[in-house]
Structure formats: C-alpha cells, structure tokens
Amino acid sequence: MARLADYFVLVGYDHDKRGSGDGQGRIIQRFPEKEWEDNPFPEGIQLFCQPGGWQLVLERKSPNFFVAVLTKINSERHYCACFTFWEAVESSQQNHADVTDEDSKFIQTPQLFAPKSLVLVSQLDHTEVFRNCLGLIYTIYIDCLDFPLEKVIGNLLTCIVPITGGSQMDDENEEALRTISLGAGDRQVIQIPISDALPVTGCSVALLLKQLGINNVLDLFCAALTEHKILFLSSSYQRLTEACRALLALMFPLKYSFTYIPILPAQLIEVLSSPTPFIIGIHSSFRADMQDLLDVIVADLDGSTVVIPECIHISVLPEPYLAQTQTALSMVLDPELEYADYAFPPSSMSVSSMKFQDKEIRAVFLRLFAQLFQGYRWSLQIIRIHPEPVIRFHKVAFLAQRVLLDDDFLTKVLDGMAFAGFVSERGSPYRVCDLFDELVANEIERIRSEEGNPQKVLKHVKEISEMLHRNENPYPAVAMHKIQKPTEGSYLRMQRKTFPQLDEGMVQWIIDQATAKLKNAPPAVKAEMKCMVPMGPPTAAVIDRNGIILANSARRLEVVRNCITYIFENKMLEAKKMLPAMLRALKGRAARQCLTEELNLHVMQNRAVLDHQQFDYVVRMMNCALQDCTPLDEHVVAAAFLPLVTAFCRKLGSGVTQFAYSCVQEHLVWTNLQFWEAMFYSDVQNHIRALYLEMDSEQLLETGPVNGEREERSALEVGAEQLCMWPTYSKEKQQELIDKEESTVYSQAIHYGNRLTYLLLPLDTSKNRLLRSTAIGDMESVSNSFVTNSIAGSMAESYDTESGFEDAETSDVANSVVRFINRFVDKVCTESGVSSDHLKALHANLPDIVQMHIETLDAVHRESKRLPPIQKPKLLRPSLLIGEELVMEGLRVFLEPDGREESMGGSVGGPRILPAEGAIFLTSYRIIFKGVPIETLVGEQTVIRSFPVASFTKDKKISQHSRTEQDIQDRIQLRSSTFQLMKIAFDEEVGSEMVELFRKHIHKLRYPQYVHSSFAFTVGQAAKQVIEPKQKEKNPSLRTMSKNIMKNAKKTIGRQHITRKKFTPPTLDQRGIPAHGDNPDQISVSEEMEQSALTLSSTIRSTDKSTMSHVVERACCRDYQRLGLGTLSNSLTRSKNEPFRITTVNRMYGVCRSYPSLLIIPQTIQDNTMHRISRCYRQNRFPVVCWRNSRTKAVLLRSAGLHGKSVVGFFKSQNAPTAGPSPADSTSIEQEKYLQAVINSMPHYADTGGRNTLSSFTSTHMNSSDSSDKQRQPKIGVLMKQVMSGKEDVPSSFSRGVLGNRARLITLANQRATMKGRESPQGKWGSIRGSGRLNAYSLNSDVGVRLAGRETLSSQANGGPSDSHYFRQQRAGLYIIGEKSQLKGAKQDPLQQWEVVPIEIFDVRHVKNSFKKLMKACVPSSASSDPNLSYYRSLEESDWLSQLHKLLQVSVLVVELLDNGSSVLISLEDGWDVTTQVVSLVQLLSDQHYRTLEGFRLLVEKEWLSFGHRFSHRGAQTMASQSSGFTPVFLQFLDCVHQIHLQFPMEFEFSLYYLKFLAYHYVSNRFRTFLLDSDHERIELGLMYEEKGEKKPQHVYKSVWDYIDRLSKKTPIFFNYLYAPEDGEVLRPYGNISNLKVWDYYTHETLSEGPPYDWELVYGRREQMDDGERTDTMAPQTQRKIVWPCYDNQNKTEPDAISKLLEELQMLECELGQVPDKWKETWDKIKTTQRTESKQEGKHLSSSSLLMSSSLSHHRRSQCVYLHEAAVGSTLNLSLDTDSSTTSTPSSGVLGRKSTSTLYSQFQTSESEHRSYEGVLYKRGALLKAWKSRWFVLDKTKHQLRYYDSKSDTDVKGIVDLAEVESVTLGTAAMGAPKNIEEKAFFDLKTTKRVYNFCAQDCQSAQQWIDKIQSCLSDA
C-alpha cells in the first residue's frame, strides 16, 4: 500500500524578487508542512513548475498540465504533476516595481497575468488520476463550487492505494481501495497494474513511434542501451515526458540508471554539458543553445528528426535481429502494408487502437530482448548461496555460446550499467517471475520456429500485447468515472480574487485523522509469489542453432586432429610435415576449440607426461592458439588451457618436472584480472554445486536410490532449492552451510594463488623478461589497479639493472607477484564474503607459496639448461666481395614478412618463404640477412636479403609483439633507398646492448665524417686512422693550382675592385672539404688577370699543363669535337668559321666551382666578360652550350636560374633611361650580347612566306620519315600549352589522356586552366619579331593562346584571336625555359629574338617527399586492408609518376624546339637538379649516340658529373649532409630513361638491367664515380685522374665504368639484343601517366641470392656451384627447376634464347679445347652473316634472320614491335599489351611492305623444327611381345622421345615423356632380340612407370643415343 500523493504544493510568481532578470517562483503553501519520514520533500520544485522560466504575460492563457520527474540520489523518482493557470496581477503589485504613484495617474499600464501552479508530488505514476484531481481542485476554485478546498486536498493526501493488484483481500475491499473520491461528488477508479515490474505506458510508446518513425526510434533505442547522451526537443512538456517514459519502457527488462530528466528547466541547462550519459527533454524554444553539443543525439519530436553528430558511432542491432524488428514494427504500425498490392484486399482489416498498438510495439521489443538474452541464465555464476546469494555474469562465456564475440552492440550492452543492474535484480535463482522470464524460458523455441513467417510472428506479438494490456488494465468492468470539469472558457472570466489561502490546520487535521486510522487497521500483506526461475533452453541448443562455423572448416579440424594424434603416437616425422598447416588452421576459432577438446581428451587418458619433442610441439600449438585470438576469444581459449598447462609436463631429471605453464607465460591474457576473476568464479560455482549435490546424495542414500535427474541440476537450480529451504533450517544448520561455503571459496582462493604464481613467475627469475610489468599495469586499469604504476616502474628498473645481486632481483620479482596476487585475492574474497581471518591467513601464506615456487623453478631452470639445445638453424655466412670486411659478426634474428605478399604465398602463390630464421651481418659495404625459412616444407632454401649500408635511410623500433618459438626481445625495421626493407626480430640470445651497438655501427658507416671514409675509398686498404683532408695532398698539381690561385688573387688586390659575391650560397666547406687559404670563389678575378690568362702557356706551368692535357683528353672534349662545338689546341688557335669555342676561363674553377674546367661559349664572347655574366646566375652557373643539333645547328644550353634582381635587370631595365652607366647596365648588356651571340651562331631559317610560323611548327626533317608517323607528331603549340599549365592541371588519374591527330597526347591546359591564365597575366612569353601592330597584343596575350595554336584560322576555344597573321609570326631564335616564380612580372622587348617560356616545375623537396611515399607504396612495412592505403592509391598519392610525366613533357617540348631550328636555354633552379635531368633527357632523345653504352656513359659523365650534380649532398653521403635527407634526382632521370626504353626497345644498345645496375650503385658507394659534388672537389681529393704507375689492387674497381667495361667483355648482361637503331632517329615518347609503368626495380627482389647487381656474388658463385655439381656425373642429373616468385632470379634461371645459345657455344668451345671467342665478337659475326644471307636469299629470309636484322622500323613503340626485313621490308607484328590507339598497322605508309598473313605463310610448321636426333631402333614390346623396328625421334623442345612405324610416317605410335625418365643404362641381350647384334648395342630406358628395352644397329649408335638422351635430361 502507498499514498496516492505525498505533497500538495501551491506555487506562485514571486513579485518581491522581480527585477531586471527573469522572474522567479515561490512556494506559497505546502501540505503537509511536516515532511514524511519515508519521503522527504524534494527541493527546487518551483523550477519545474515553469521550465521555461517564470514570466508575466499580457493575456490569460488556457490552463495546462504536465508531469515532471525528479530523480533522487538513490535513483528513486518523484512524479510532480503540475497544473498551471494564470491570474491577473493586482494593480498594487503591478505598479510596485515599474512606476511611482504619481506617474500612475497619467500612465495606463496594461493588465498583466502571473502563472500559478497546483502541484502534486507522488512516488506513483498515475498521470490521468493526477490530472483529474488537480482539475477538480481548479474547477472548485474557478466555478466557485460549494466544496471546501481544504477537505478536498486533505482527502487527496490521505488516499491509500495498492502498489500492485492481487492483494490478499476480498473483492469488496479491493474495489474500495481501487475507487477514490475527494469529497466533491467525484469518483475515480485507479487501474493498479498486476506486476509492478512491467512499466505502464498508456499510449506513449505508440506516440513516440508515430512522431519519429521506426528507424529513428531504433537508433535512439540502441543509443540508450550503449550509453549515449540523448536529448528530446518539443514544444509540449507533456510530450517530452511521454517520449522519455516510452524510451525507458522499450528498454525493459533493463533499467536506465543514468541521468533522467524528462523536462529540464531553463535555469539548469548547463546539465547538458555533463560528461555522463543522460536522457533529457527540453523545450524546443531552447534549440539555439544546442549548437555547442557535439556529443549529444538530438531527437526533435515535433519535426520527426533525429540528428546524430559525426563524432558519434552508434552500434546497431546485430543481424538478423535488426531486420526482424523492423519488419515486425512495420506490420504493427501499418497492417495495411501487407495487402497494399493485392488486387482484392480484405474487406475488413482490424486496425488496433493507439493503446493496443502501444502494447504490440512493446511486445516486439520484449521478443527482441528475449532473443538477445536467450540462454543468459546459463552464463550466471552463483558464488555464494548462504547467507545471501552472490551472482556474477560470465560475459565471455555468454558471447562465445552465442557466437557473438565480435558483435559490437551486444558487447557494449553487456558492459553497461543497465545490464549490471539486470544481473543483480534478475540473477537470483529464487524470486518473483514476470513476463520476460516466461518468454526467455518457454518461448525461445517458438520465436525461432516462427522466424520468416510474418503471420505467426504477428500472432505471437498480439498474444504478448494482450498480457501487457491486461497488466495495465486489470479491471475492465469498472464504474463510470465522475469528475467535474470547469465550464468552457471559464478561465477567460474576470476573477475577483486569486486562488484562496487555504487553512493549513484543517488540512493537517484531516491528514492526522487518516494516519491514526491507518495505524489501527490490519496491514494488507501482498503475497510473495516467489518461485524457481526457469533456466530456459540449454546453451547447446543455442550453439547448434547458430551453427558455430564448424561446417565450413571440416578439413581444418581434420588437420588439427590428425596432427595431435601423430604427436601423441610419437610419429614425429608426420607431425612435422603437418605442423605448418595446423598452425595456419589455428587462426580459425573452430580449430582452436577443437585443439582444446583434443588436448583435454589426452589429459583424461593419463597421457600428460610427454617426451621433449612432444612437449615442444604441444607448447608451440598452445602459444599459436593464444597468439591468434581476439581479446575476448583469448579468454575462452585460455580458460580451456588453464587446467592443461598444469597437466602437460616433461621429466627433466630425477625429481624435476617441467610443466607447460612455464612456456606459455608471455601472453597478455595471464595478466588480465577479468580473466582470472571469471575463472575463479566459475570454479567456485562448480564446487558450491558439488557441495550441495553431495549433501543431497547423502540424504537420498538413506531413503532410496539416487535420482539421475537430480545429479544433472545446474548450480542455479541447486541454489534456488537451497534459498527455498533456507527459512526451514535451524540456525545451527544455517551456520554450518555458511561455514562450508566459505571454506570452499577459501580453498579455491589458495588454489588460484598457486595458479597465478605458476603463470606470473618466469622460469628464469634472474632475467624476468616474461613478467611484463607494463602489461600488468595496463590491464590493472581495467580491474581496479592491482599493481600501481610505481610498482611497475620499480619492476622495470630492476629488470634492466645489472647490479649483480641476484637475490635482490629475485625478491623484486617475488614482491611484485605477491602484490598482484594479494590484490586479486582481496577483490574476489571480498565479493565472495570470505571472513577477514581467512583473508589475513591467505595474505600470510602467499609469500611462502611464491618463494617455494621460485625454488622449484630454479631447479627446473637449472635442469632445462642441461638439455640438448633446441636445434636452431646453423648460421650461414654470406659471401663477401673482395675488400669487403665484416664489421659485426652475425646476430641471430628472425626476418619477418612486411607488406609485400609475394614472399608469403597466399594469392600470389608459392611457398611461405618468410618469416625466416638466420643471422644479420654488418660489413663495410652491406647489411646482409642470410637464413632459412621457418616453414618446414621450404626449410632447404636459403633466404638472402641485403642492401648497401650507404643506401640505408631509416631505422625504427617496432613495438607490436610477434611470437615465435623463442622469446623475442627487440624488433627493428631497416629501410633502404634501393627499395629494400628488413623487419628483423632479434633472438633471445642477442642482448639489448648488442642491438644498440649494431644500430650505432650502421649509423657510423652510413654517415662517415668525410667522404673518403666511405667504402669506395677504404676497399682494399688496410685499416688506418682517418686522415684529415688537409694532410691528404697526393697530386702535386693541386698545390700548384692553389698557389697560382692565391698568387693571382693577391695581384688583383688594390689594383682592381674586388667584388664580393652577393648571391652565392654557403661554401662547400661544410661538407667536409677544407678551404685552401682564402676561398678563391669569393673573389671576382679582375679583367687584367683574365687578359693575361688567354693562352695556356701564360698561366699554367709545366705541372699544370699535364693536368690540362688530362682535361683536354677527357671524353666530354671529344664529344664537343664530335658535335662540332670547337677544338682546343696547345696554341689555342681558333677557326673564325666556328661559331663556338672551348674556353679555359674556368680552368682554376675561379668563375664557377661546380662547372667543369672547359666550357663551350660563343666564339665572339671574350673570356673577360664571363665573370660579370656569371654574377647574375645562382651559384655563378652561367649559360654554356652542351649539345648541338647536327641538322638544324640549334644548340642546347644550360644554366642556373637567374637571381631575383637579375631578372629585373635582364627583362626590365634594358631600355629604361638612366643617368649614367652602372654595373647593372653593363651586366645586362653583356647578357644580351651573350644571348645574341648564341642566336647569331645558328643559320637563319626566317621565311617571309610564313611556312615556319607557329601554326605549322612541325618537324622539317619528317619528310624522309614514314608519312603515318608524320601525322602522329605532336604540334609544338599543344606541347607548349601542356608544359606551361600549372601544377593544378597535372592529371590526377592514371589513365587520363586525349587522342589528338592519331597521337596520344595529354591535354593539361583545360578550359579552367585557360581562364585562370587569362586572369593572371604573369606567365607571358615575349613577342617574336613581326609586325608592330601585333606586338602589343602579343605582350599581353595568354600563353596558352600565344603558342598553343591550331592549324585552323577560326577563333580559339580559349579566347584567342582568329586573325591569320597572329599565327604566322616567326619563331624565336632562342627559347629560355625558366621557372614561372622567377620570371614573375617579366616583360619582353619586341626587338629581341629570344623568348621566355615560364613553366612550373617541382623542386627537390617535392622529389624527396615523393620518393618517401613511393618507397612506402612499393615496399610497405605491413599489409593493410584499408582501401585508402592500397598499392595503387599510395602510388598515386606519391606523385612520382606525375613528376616523370612533367620531366618527359618538358623534354619532348625542348626536343621539338631544337628539331625545328630554335636553340633552347634550360635555366631552372640552381642548374644542377631538374636542369640536368631535362638536358640529359633531351640529348638522349635527340642524339642516338647517347643511346649506346659508350654514349650514355659520356652523357652521365658530362652532364651529371662534370656539371656538378651534388651527388654527395643529394645522397646524404656524409655526416654533414645527413640532415638534408636523401633526394634521388639521378634515380628519377634513370626512371625516365627506363620509360623511354620501354617505348623504344630497339633504340638502345644497353639493356634495362644496365639502368638498374646504375640505379643501385649510384647509392651503394662501392665505386667512387658518384661521390662528391663537382670536378673541383674530385680534383682536390685526387680522384679526377689516376697517377701514372699507380698500382690498382686486383678486382678493386674505383670507377663503375671500368667495372661495366670489364664485365661487358665477359657477359652480354648489359647488352640489348633488340638494338637496331635508325640513323638520325629522334625519339618522342608518350608522357601521359597512362603510358608510364612502375619500374620493376622498385618492386622486384630476389630472396635466393640478394640484389643481383653485385655480379661476383650472384653469377660468380653460380659458376662455382655449377663446377662443383659437374664433378659428380655418376648419378642422373636434371636441370629442371621450379621458379618461385620473389625468390629466384628469373633472368638467371630462365635466360633469353640468345644468351643461352651464346653460353652453350662457349661451353662447347671449352669442351673442344678451343679458346672461346668473346661473346661480342660472336654476336657481330652472326649479325654480319645474317645480313649477307638476307641479301643473297632476298625474299626467302629465315626466321632467325628477322631478329638479327639491323634495319628495324620503330614507328610503333614497345606495344607493337616491327621487325623489318632488310631487302623487302615485310613486317612481323609482335603485339604486346596493345590497344586500339597503338596497334593499328600503318599499311599504306611503307611501300612494298607485306601483310602479316603473307609473312606468317613463310614459316614451316613441320615436325622438323622439333627433331633434335632421329634414327632406327629396335624396341621390345610389353610383356611377351616381340622386338620391332621403329623410327625414333628425340625432341628436346617438347622433351619427348617419339616413335613412328617408318621415317615417312606422320602418325605417332607412342611417346616417352623424358620428364618421367630416371636413368639410361647399357642393357643386355634379351630373348627374341635381333640376331647378329653386338651386346653393347642394347640399352635400357627406365621411367617411373616401366623399363623400355632398345637395340641399336651397333654399339656406336647405341652410345650416341644414350649420350643424346642424357644430354636432353641434363638440359632440362
């Protein structure tokens, strides 16, 4: 029984506190004034009466009503029913604060109305009863009824109603209690719910679904269960209350335990910033205040929307429950939906009312919870039964049974506060049951069976809804309500007086009377309907229903079972074979479960004592199973292993046994407190159950036989029986049961103290690595912090100290373990109700237990050391180069797999080569790993991964733990710029100090202090102290040079002005090169000195002349002479007809230290002007000629970019009036003269007819080319537009391209870019000489319009003019390609003949960043499933291909300009990075000489080495340049060459391997070629020219070119057999990204032998191995081999046909005793012979000569290679990876070319091609068959031995597959053999299937057959 209402309160507007702010309310009267003892009066009730604030209004409002909810600190709720009406404010109150009395006479103030609230406070939620009662009070007041309000209120406060129905009274008394009257002629019947556990909702749930919809409500439902913040908005307060009530009702049987405020007052709005979850309702007028709430889900009830912030992820219901719930709700809310498409819908469809719909919706959610929590009672653990039940829920076991371990939603629900309350409330096995209990216990099977049948589901829903409705409305036949209501519109009447002041004494007297009467009445006792809570279907049924994924893994389970059987049957060889497959299978959950079951089975069979091999295998399987688990799944597996690890053991000696727990300690699960708690409680429950079952069996033995069903009772059922019988026991019996239970828990606590000791104490307590204190500390944050951080820290310190006091260290370990166990025991024993005495005894015993175990472990550890060590693979020593020395001996490591999947098998195929076990070696040249795979089936293979130390870029420690057989200490990752990655895990035998030493040595070798300390200098030398560079002056000419420089510098001081350079960067001394006296580069040498230095003899003495003679002899000078760019004789005589000359102005590197000593400048330019010109350019790198087109005589120049001030002087100040001459003017004039001299050096092609206009700017030399190729040449205007478009126009797609004029051209200047170009006229080109009328326009026209013209004369799409004269301007004599940022604002003089092409180009920072991303894309450190981190996405984001595209684009443009007669000056950045790339590519494309081996070497020496590319700085070769990082500019150039090589494979003499070789060794520091930054630095170190007579160690090469030359004589590895150039061929590669390929140098590796670029290590070792193998010729040999991806060197195992033939030829010559010819001579002879044959035979050309022919057509690229016959010109079309745009055969382009079909008809298809040897043999038939003569054919190609009836027969009678042949031996004569045949003429061929008997004509013929067959077998 309970009071209907506890308090009645009258709250009104507080006129006294009215001020500038919002008004306030005050309590006018409260009844009763004295608080109830059981229910104190809630404070702050006036805030909730007016949630929006107390305000006066101008017009009277209609009364309103709502119920607010106040929650007490103990989670009890007060329901505050507020009835508010408005009263007129009296004039005295109205004028009190606004105006004075004087003013009131003249001012008519408006009538104001103040709110007043009647409030009922109750612990019961009867909304309608409260509405009626307060409405009745208001009616009495407003209609002035003749009923005293005091009596009505007194009656209301004394109403006593039952809490639930079914009280122990007769019907009359019950009906009297249900019916209430307030004494005003009213009558109400209160519907008392039958069960108070079920929420009462009325229509609120149906209303919520109607307002928000199904999906929104489901979102809110999931959000509330997963503890998110939810905020309701509405303009109705009552709707807010109803919505909040509905959401809580949907959560039943869970109860919401967080903040719950259905109506939040405005004054408390800061509550919304609370960090805890809540469900709050607020008026929609405060919507603006919600903007800052980033973690709150807002549901707008009026707008039917739910807004979920982006930062919030709501876990949704798992399938199929989500779909089933949505379908069921849809059927309930819209029953007509099912029949909407029917042609004849049912005539009568029953639509439920809102009240019934409400219950049906709740029924759907009840069914949902029954499905989610099905079987939950089987996961409850009852720890204590007496005196009070203690229940725990085993979450992991429940999720495992449901196969929902990975479900996010259910996991969060089970972790929530609501579910914790659910367990504590419903966990007891003996209590009152309700509807939910019945559903979970009895209806689960029905719910399962009805899945998928909507009608049955709906029927079940309606049944449940009827029970819910009956619970809320238990008395359907009730008397009519009788409640008086006010007359309509009565609130608008003028009231003479306000709500009256009530007589407090009268009300109190009525209350006191009723209280006294109630005390005398007998108490109404509600019958407790407690019963045993049904368990529901067992968990096995749940598991079977979900089908625990065993069906799809039957094969894996079979592997697990077979392997375990082999282990325990001691069939170790079989077990070893199957172990890798089993370890892979253990990644599946079903296989792990199977493993635990099988091992448990063997323990039960007393097979727990194992031998050493069995023990190792079992431990390995356990570790693997625990390693691959998810955190929750790990609990299940570890729980199954816990009894096993203390059972499996092995004998180490007399009385010493090692258990498995000492080998599985490293897993984090053993330090997880939640795991230990769950295990402890599970065992305690089992023992408590056994305790009571044993007591029952003793009692039953006295009375009769034991009932089997009673033995199968669960622990909860046993507990329910005991709770039921508890009141019947005597106190002595009760105390006995309590003591027995406590002793059971106590004994289990001791047992678990031992278990924890076993798994936390390491085997070697002196090393104590396995007790990871950090892990223990981490896990304790989850479980009440058992070990504090300070303890963890002290443990960590004790681990790493080497104090030598073992006892102290051991005690540290013991103390930490004791603390951990003590706190675990404290927690579980406190929860289990263990007495304090027992707890103290436990704490006292634990240190002794730990100490005893430590002593036991010492013995085990000591004996385990005496065991024969585990057979670790023998460390394989790597092969070293001559001169390469070991810096550190091998450290045993594991090479782990990285993100490349090739070595892991999987989708790529092949075996699991990685992980591998071996050692890592550090030499003076390389970092080398050599070992064998861990995978048993590939253990015979050797794994080698290495890279040069000089290419090392980054190392880092890897934190995540990867477990193998041994304990891993440290793991590091090493990355190399040669696209190699090593992830290595050091073995336990390698100490941390050795790992650190290894890393320090790497960094020391990688970044030496001076460059001459690198491997290229130290190789072949004895170890000696590093000498400072100042003391190292080997070359006598260097001293002479430095003295001469100083002497000349001193002469000029005081005679001429000495100009300090303003624009030079920091000197190069910081890179370790010392200065010789004063730095000559800081002084601009005077003109007088230069006048005296014009001749060689006037300045250079004899020693210097020898140096200059070296300079003259250099290859680049010979190249200048080849190009006709001048000569240099001793007398320096010049031919005036030559436009260019070689100058020695930089012979002492005084003008530019980074330039070579000899330079090409125009003939007319004097040396003394070069100093002034050089000042305008960065690094003094002034324009010099580096190449000349032999046909058009156009020249290619290179320089650095101009200084900022020089740009202005060069382009702006030429024609500006000045007061007098200045240095800037003279410099500009000198520059102009210089450029004009370059232009004047070329023949002029100006044509007044306009044929050479930009619109027809095509190649003039195309007349001799293929006509179809002419059409494919890109227009130079299009190229200009592409090159000059900005960075933002670079295509982001890998396949974007535009086909224009039958050529693939990428169009970058799209319309958007063109518009942008017009808006910013910064990148203008200067005018080309032409008519003055057009010049003004040209200066301001858009660049894209200016030169990207078309051949048509129509108006341009990008806004250019249509005037034909505009496109007929003459082209410039010189184009200067510069950076757009440097040429910003520059203007062109109309009278000049040069023109500026401003382009946007990437700088070295972009190259560096791009390279880093490229390395991570091609060699990822770990595999990623994220689609944003896929290979192609990462490759695209690196922008590497975009940079290649830009380089090729600019290069093709320059090639076009040069080919059309215009010279080009490349003037970009500092002139040593992008400039070098572009200049080199242009020469390579334009001049076929540079596409030879000798020419490419010359190109690199001239443009990269002599012109000062900063190899040391960009490669970070020394400590000084370490901070700058690695920037692979040269690699980018080689990649561009690789792209061109792919498109024109017949134009290059060198192979792609040659490019890879250079790419590898330019960073390897094996050679000195690519060291230092300029010729000046190389001369200073004496590297430029070797002294005569200097002895070079054998096999030690200082120059990579010498090495390549020597190697090229041995092997054709650098030669391209397809090389067949056309004279004068200019290459124009496609540059769009879709045409570019990722270089396989970045992605391919060879794990069998390491990088294939140190030839002696790879191919030399192979020759030795081959020699060793050839010595043993007795056994049958085979050369057949399986090629594995990423393991084998494919070029070596599968060489091309020509290399194979050349190799065989050399072998045959060696066998014949001849000196083998060099391969090049042989190749040249064959080519000459083939040319001769082709001329003689004419049309009848053999197929082999097609390949040798040198006149090959290259009009199609690598996708379609044409092999052109010399005499006729027929074409063989080899289509490779072609598409429609590149494979169309230009049939009309070449006269006399045969069609492809005609060509193929020349080839014979007879078997003669496949007849290696043939002849007549007698063959003996099968059993009892005679000998017959057959014609036998030995076919090496098909690897067959075929036989026919006769030579002319074409039908094969039989085939012997040589792959099946085991041996060929001499035989003996058999019965029925041909007569008169020698005995040695018989031989036998043994195959895997049978033995063939053969007979030849004589013994010589038989021997020939044997030799041929054996040769064929060995070649295989």
SSE arrangement:
Blueprint: E1 2-3, E2 7-13, E3 25-31, H1 45-49, E4 64-71, E5 77-88, H2 91-96, H3 101-104, E6 113-122, H4 127-142, H5 149-157, E7 160-161, H6 171-178, E8 179-180, E9 188-189, H7 204-212, H8 214-225, E10 229-234, H9 237-250, E11 259-261, E12 278-283, E13 296-300, E14 305-307, H10 321-333, H11 354-372, E15 380-384, E16 390-393, H12 395-402, H13 408-415, H14 417-426, E17 430-432, H15 435-442, H16 444-449, H17 454-472, H18 504-520, E18 530-532, H19 539-546, H20 554-568, H21 572-585, H22 589-604, E19 609-610, H23 612-627, H24 631-645, E20 649-653, E21 656-659, H25 673-703, H26 708-711, H27 715-725, H28 731-760, H29 773-780, H30 789-800, H31 806-832, H32 836-866, E22 886-896, E23 916-923, E24 926-933, E25 943-948, E26 952-957, E27 971-976, E28 980-986, H33 992-1006, H34 1015-1018, H35 1036-1052, H36 1087-1092, H37 1096-1099, H38 1102-1113, H39 1115-1122, E29 1140-1143, E30 1159-1162, H40 1170-1174, E31 1184-1188, E32 1195-1199, H41 1204-1211, H42 1223-1240, H43 1267-1272, H44 1276-1284, E33 1298-1300, E34 1303-1305, H45 1311-1319, H46 1332-1340, ...
Helix pairs in contact: 4-5, 5-18, 7-8, 7-9, 7-11, 10-11, 10-17, 11-17, 20-21, 20-22, 21-23, 22-24, 23-24, 25-27, 25-28, 28-31, 28-32, 29-30, 30-31, 31-32, 35-38, 44-50, 48-49, 50-51, 51-52, 51-54, 54-55
